[in-house]
């Protein structure tokens, strides 16, 4: 029997004195329904990934509500734009908690900032961007309500890139170029830790640049002078566009490895052809990789791509569009867990999510535990070649060897 406790749990946890604050917005009205929030950048320099993730969430909501109640409760989506401002994300999270949401998807820059509010409100938070707080996520740790649905968090996000760079690093020297943002700094530290534990023949050299920099040529030249001819770039959006421009201007000839934003059309347009030809990006789930061009993905990944293109009226597809699968999988996982729990109470959904069961999504199979909040394993991820199109829904896989 379904137990609709999402709104009551959220309101009780927040000690909201006015009953009307919890009145119309969720399962507490007696209807078995998941009220799912979306909090993230839909405007501003980080908006491209936020727009993609929202579209993916909308595809999953449409699919859930078209199922006629079979396979889980219906879903309502409430969206809040932060413009990329983490302070606004915190305020939006408090607002949505009072509206009775059971779960919220957060874009990368919002996820670390909202964890205290999730603890207070006892609602689920899903998204990428958990790298800076990964060690604090878990039932026995500081942040108990956060789950990663990303392929860019922790060691699994770094390992394929380091593998590729290390195969092409003359003298074992790998450069790291990062934007001085929370994401860039976190990825650098994760990489340093991974290399110190697992890559005894690699020496890292590092350089960073401020957000909004109009050139990173000086930093590139500094890395070259230290012998780096294999480079990992930890930035995205405008920072990665500028990096690609500066790589061309600096005359750097080595391998360039970066996040999946290497497939952003704006990044591809900014990169000189000779630079792009020696670049790889990732990781991407292997559900979105193929050995050739023009291959459509299958299963949940295929459903996502088809629905995503229709939702956005697109004929093309890029590695950056795959970010939409974060939103798609977040909604899918919560709804599936609610169905297994027979309840829309966030606490009951969380118990099922962290039970060690396998949850199928567009990006692969997720397995969580009480203190395991990365759902995807490294063996499910790979790299892609941004110089090849991904229009059919899969990108050209890059061989590590």
In short:
This protein is α/β, with parallel strands linked by helices and 401 residues long. The chain has helices at residues 6-14, 47-66, 86-99, 115-121, 154-167, 182-198, 217-225, 238-250, 265-270, 273-277, 299-312, 324-341, 346-353; strands at residues 33-40, 74-81, 103-106, 124-127, 146-148, 173-179, 203-209, 230-234, 255-258, 279-285, 289-290, 358-361, 364-367, 381-384, 395-398.
Compile the SSE list and pairings.
Blueprint: H1 6-14, E1 33-40, H2 47-66, E2 74-81, H3 86-99, E3 103-106, H4 115-121, E4 124-127, E5 146-148, H5 154-167, E6 173-179, H6 182-198, E7 203-209, H7 217-225, E8 230-234, H8 238-250, E9 255-258, H9 265-270, H10 273-277, E10 279-285, E11 289-290, H11 299-312, H12 324-341, H13 346-353, E12 358-361, E13 364-367, E14 381-384, E15 395-398
Parallel strand pairs: 1-2, 1-3, 3-4, 4-5, 6-7, 6-8, 8-9, 9-10, 11-15
Antiparallel strand pairs: 10-14, 12-13, 14-15
Helix pairs in contact: 2-11, 2-12, 5-6, 7-8, 12-13
Count of strand segments: 15
- Counting helices, strands and paired strands, the structural category is alpha/beta
Query: What CATH architecture of the largest domain would you give?
Result: 3-Layer(aba) Sandwich
The stretches of 5 or more residues where confidence is low (pLDDT under 50) are 4-30
CATH topology of the largest domain: Rossmann fold
* Sheet with most strands: strand arrangement: 7-6-8-9-10-14-15-11
Rg over C-alpha atoms, rounded to the nearest angstrom: 21 Å
Domain count, please report it. Answer: 2
The amount of beta strand, in percent, is 15-25%
Largest sheet, described in full? Answer: 8 strands, mixed
CATH class term of the largest domain: Alpha Beta
Oligomer: single chain
Q: What percentage of residues falls in helices of 4 or more residues? A: 25-40%
- For CATH, the homologous superfamily of the largest domain is named as Response regulator
Helix and strand run: HEHEHEHEEHEHEHEHEHHEEHHHEEEE
Form type: globular
DSSP helix count?
Answer: 13
* Distance between the amino and carboxyl termini: 53 Å
Overall pLDDT level? 90
């Amino acid at each position: 029997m379904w137990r609709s406790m999402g709104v009551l749990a959220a309101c009780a946890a927040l000690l909201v004195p006015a009953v009307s604050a919890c009145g119309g917005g969720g399962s507490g009205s007696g209807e078995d329904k998941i009220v799912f929030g979306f909090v993230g950048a839909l405007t501003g320099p980080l908006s491209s990934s936020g727009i993609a993730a929202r579209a993916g969430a909308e595809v999953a909501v449409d699919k859930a509500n078209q199922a006629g109640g079979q396979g889980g409760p219906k879903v309502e989506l409430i969206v809040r734009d932060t413009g990329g401002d983490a302070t606004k994300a915190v305020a939006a999270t408090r607002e949505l908690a009072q509206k009775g949401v059971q779960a919220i998807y957060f874009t990368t820059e919002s996820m670390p900032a909202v964890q205290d509010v999730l603890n207070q409100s006892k609602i689920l938070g899903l998204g990428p961007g958990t790298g800076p707080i990964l060690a604090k996520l878990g039932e026995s740790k500081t942040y108990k309500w956060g789950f990663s649905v990303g392929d860019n968090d922790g060691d699994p996000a770094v390992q394929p890139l380091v593998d590729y760079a290390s195969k092409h690093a003359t003298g074992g020297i790998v450069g790291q170029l990062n934007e001085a943002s929370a994401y860039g700094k976190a990825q650098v530290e994760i990489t340093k830790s991974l290399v110190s534990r697992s890559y005894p023949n690699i020496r890292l050299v590092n350089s960073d640049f401020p957000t909004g920099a109009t050139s990173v040529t000086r930093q590139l030249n500094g890395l070259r002078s230290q012998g780096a001819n294999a480079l990992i770039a930890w930035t995205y959006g405008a920072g990665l566009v500028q990096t690609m421009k500066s790589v061309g201007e600096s005359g750097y000839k080595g391998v360039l490895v970066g996040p999946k934003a290497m497939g952003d059309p704006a990044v591809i347009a900014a990169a000189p052809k000779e630079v792009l030809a020696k670049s790889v990006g990732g990781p991407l789930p292997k559900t979105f990789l193929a050995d050739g061009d023009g291959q459509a993905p299958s299963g949940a990944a295929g459903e996502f791509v088809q629905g995503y293109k229709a939702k956005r009226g697109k004929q093309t597809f890029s590695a950056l569009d795959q970010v939409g699968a974060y939103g798609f999988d977040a909604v899918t996982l919560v709804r599936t867990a609610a169905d297994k729990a027979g309840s829309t109470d966030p606490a009951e959904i969380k118990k099922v999510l962290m039970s060690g069961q396998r949850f199928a999504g567009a990006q692969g199979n997720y397995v969580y535990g009480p203190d395991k909040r990365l759902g995807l394993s490294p063996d499910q991820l790979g790299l892609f070649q941004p110089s090849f199109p991904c229009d059919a829904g899969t990108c050209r896989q890059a061989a590590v060897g």
